[in-house]
Amino acid sequence: MLNERIVFLDVETTGGSAVYDRIIEIGLVEIDCGRFVDEWSSLVNPQRHVPLGVQTLTGISDDMVAAAPRFEDICRELEQRLEGKVLAAHNASFDYRFLRNEFRRAGVRYAAPVLCTVKLARRLFPQHRRHNLDALIMRHSIFCIDRHRALGDARVLWELAQIWQRELDNEILNLACADLLRRPPVPAGLPHDVFDALPEAPGVYIFYGTNDVALYAGRSTNIRSRVLAHFMHGHVGKNMQIVKAVQRVDWLETAGELGAYLHEMRLVKKLAPLYNRQLRRAREWCAWLWNPEDPASPPQLAEARELEMADLGKLYGLFRSRSSAREALRALAEAHGLCRVTLGLEQPLPNGACSAYELNRCRGACIGTESMISHAMRMMQALSRLRIRPWPYSGRIAVRERDPHGERSEFHVIDQWRYLGTAKSEAELHELREAAARDIFDLDTYKMLARFLKSPPRSCDILALPSP
After folding, report:
1. Which DSSP state fits 274?
2. How would you class 195 by CB atoms within 10 Å of its CB: exposed for 0-12, middle for 13-18, buried for 19 or more?
3. 3-state DSSP call for residue 458?
4. What is the DSSP string of 151-206?
5. Where do the domains of the chain lie, and which CATH numbers do they carry?
């Protein structure tokens, strides 16, 4: 473990999001092949308020960081201290994300091999349940007077490393470190630094193959970690096929998770990626279309591409195949004693009855012993649980999705459960107001929006839009 040039590092921050929060303190201990070289720390002015909870935990106040240098003022010195070294931290992905984003804001591209001491502790001591820093301090009897300060926690990591080096078999320790430091191989068709450019932000990503054929589109709250996961598991199943064929990686950042989902759905429809089979099949859904005002007319099986917006209030059930839709209607007929002939599920017997009537499971709408109105009322009750939720607004809406600090927002325009597009500004929103609802009604988009609009998060506002 210590046969490397290592920097044990810790950062204190204004919060948990590397995209929206900022670093307020950095501390590091530099080691060269097991030999202590130097230690360094600095408060950092985050140019925003330090939350009270963070002040209580760390003891770092607004007054303390007000006079501190900004990250861009210390980034060159920090870059020199980190250059060519393994970055070791507890829950290292947290510290690494913050460092990368702060460097990116300062115009510096930073990448390093990362060793997570949480993951290392789990590998080395699987018999223990807890591996947070407090648990390790207690377990190894480490004295720390500056807990939750960056340099104090970095010193604890350096002491932990020395203890593990003394008490454990070196081969076991070195193998565990080597495994954790392993990075996904970069496929031959991609630039060597492709992973370093990936943002740690919500959005969508697309893998392209030969002749720019779209292979796969996905979404994530952290584009970088999700893309890396594809390549880390590139020897398994679908990932293996994608990794072998990928020639280019593209991405689009969004303000939040809703935007990532909507953009993913649109990209799948537009690009028809080879390996998005499930989402591609989702466009082939169907539903029962029935007008209770015409009780003698049986339900009609309608596919998505056949529907108009006015039909949505008459739809019952959402099915991924015609066979599953018919099976569901048969089950309803069986459970509620409905007439299979009236439902259009079978042809009448020579006497005009349906097969269920012969078994006393139909009240006789097929032969007139039950009125069509009575049958329609029972049918409406049976179908009620399958009815598509009515559009709860008088017209189009824009869902304004903001990042937690309000630094970035997007307007997602929706009408009758159909996603019409996303605007980045008020001017673009005005243009979208004039757009026609060209997209077909989509099953997965409907399900997601029905859940989302039932209880929108605080980061989103619902804005009514005038009719086009």
Report:
1. T
2. middle
3. coil
4. HHHHHHHHHHHHHHHHHS-HHHHHHHHHHHH--PPPPTTS-TTTTTT--SSSEEEE
5. 5-181 (3.30.420.10), 203-281 (3.40.1440.10), 285-386 (no CATH), 397-464 (no CATH)
d(CA 331, CA 298): 16
Q: Are strands 315-319 and 460-464 parallel, antiparallel or unpaired?
A: unpaired
In this structure, are residues 39 and 28 in contact, taking their beta carbons and an 8 Å threshold? yes
- The identity of residue 109, as a single letter, is R
Whole-angstrom CA distances from 351 to 357, 364, 371 are 11, 12, 18
- DSSP summary character for residue 299: P
Q: Quick check: 37 and 123 in contact, CB under 8 A?
A: no
CA distance 288 to 310: 14
Structure tokens at 466: 């005038």
**Which residues sit opposite 460 in a β-bridge?**
401
pLDDT for res 64: 96
Cα–Cα distance measured from residue 108 to residue 197, given in angstroms and rounded to the nearest whole number: 11
pLDDT, tens digit (0-9, with 9 covering 90-100), for 406-436: 567 899 999 888 888 888 877 778 776 655 5
- Condensed to tens digits (0 to 9), the pLDDT of residues 273-323 reads 988 876 555 456 788 988 888 877 889 888 766 666 556 777 888 887 889
Helix (H, G, I), strand (E, B) or coil at 1: coil
Task: State the pTM of this model.
Answer: 0.62
The conformation of residue 11, written as its DSSP 8-state character, comes to: E
